[in-house]
Design brief:
single chain, alpha+beta, 9-stranded antiparallel sheet, about 25% helix, globular
Length: about 180
């Protein structure tokens, strides 16, 4: 199910509001619409899952934000799939690698396998639209991924956010936004 509109809260404990510097008095929560735009544009995400013995597993992946849900995939025998079969809770992160500028995002939720064929086709279209030749061109890194989804060689997971976080940096002014769904 697509995520609903979240409640938005600025967490001053982790924002510049407690450590004033120029511009800190104007720190506000990041709008969910801005976060969604960043999720739509981000090319690389990191998915975190938990192994059955409790150890973490973190790996990069591509993902597509579509209708309020973040979609990613993995091979049926890969560690992510094994972990999610045991515990569907996961987090996907994306953002910038800069200390003073950018917006890092964390989406927490449960990864549910996509089994509905019509939804799967929507997700394939979202991936192809977002990643273009990387998926649609025979020379593309992920060419054929849509067919792998259709055949079931790869599992497509949907993560509707339960909670999301935004860690903003604007010229050294920091904000920490929490969105609760």
């Amino acid at each position: 199910m697509p995520a609903q509109q979240p409640t938005t809260e600025l967490d001053a404990r982790y924002s510049s509001a407690l450590n004033p510097r120029p511009g800190a008095s104007e720190v506000t929560a990041t709008a969910w619409a801005e976060a969604q735009g960043r999720l739509e544009a981000a090319e690389i995400f990191w998915v975190s899952t938990v192994r059955p013995d409790g150890r973490l597993h973190v790996t990069p992946c591509i993902a597509a934000w579509h209708d309020g849900v973040l979609y990613f995939s993995t091979g049926r025998t890969e560690q992510k799939a094994k972990n999610l079969a045991h515990d569907a809770h996961c987090a996907l992160t994306t953002g910038a690698n800069a200390l003073t500028d950018g917006l890092d995002l964390v989406i927490e939720g449960r990864a549910e396998p996509v089994t509905d064929r019509a939804r799967l086709e929507e997700v394939i279209t979202a991936y192809e639209t977002k990643y273009g030749p990387h998926i649609t061109s025979p020379e593309g890194t992920f060419h054929g991924i849509g067919d792998a989804f259709r055949r079931g060689d790869a599992v497509v997971f949907a993560v509707a956010p339960d909670t999301a976080y935004g860690f903003g940096r604007d010229n050294g002014v920091y904000s920490h936004t929490r969105w609760t769904f």
